[in-house]
Here is the input.
Amino acid sequence: MLTGMTHLHSTLAIVLLLALVISIIITLVNLAGNKPYNRKIALIGLISAHLQLVTGLILYFISARGFQNLSGDTMGDSVSRLYTVEHPIAMLLGIILITVGYSKSKKIADAKQANKTVLIYYIIGLILILSRIPYATWSILN
Ligand code: HEM
Ligand code: HEM
Here is the structure.
């Protein structure tokens, strides 16, 4: 279960990064060309983010790098702190930003404004996500 979930989470991370980049680029092209807001394209990023949230939450409860590792010593060790504290918090915030951006844009009638809103929330969300990926131990990169 743990191995399978870790693999799924590692792989979905790539899917999510690609999905967000695609959502951002196509929305940027639509904004620049004064084209309508494409909700389906933003949805690709949103669904990938929510799927990753589910696998991340499960990992947090079954992995030794999750809540079981929470202690005073965790804060003193940069690798433990990254997995147990910084990674989950930053990712959660990033996913919340993406969800808020998607929800807000859904209700905006003006295409330009809807495109801009998704762009701002998705780009900040992506930066936050990129900032706390455990690159040094990510199985796909190593
Ligand atoms: C811990 C699990 C999850 C939480 C807390 C969560 C939370 C949310 C929230 C707060 C929204 C925003 C609703 C809105 O204002 O529009 C949302 C929308 C959505 N979620 Fe999730 N979600 C979770 C898992 C999933 C999963 C597993 C999927 C599918 C693979 C999914 C697919 C969607 C979709 C498609 C929408 C957008 C619906 C629309 O078009 O408005 N979510 N979710
Ligand atoms: C934007 C979403 C996320 C991305 C892109 C992401 C990415 C990653 C990556 C690349 C790894 C390293 C896996 C490996 O060593 O091969 C990882 C591990 C981990 N993630 Fe996430 N993650 C996300 C969200 C979350 C969330 C929301 C949580 C918890 C609430 C979470 C909890 C964990 C835990 C506990 C591990 C360590 C698993 C282990 O090695 O035992 N992640 N994540």
Q: What stands out?
A: DSSP finds five helices and no strands in the chain.
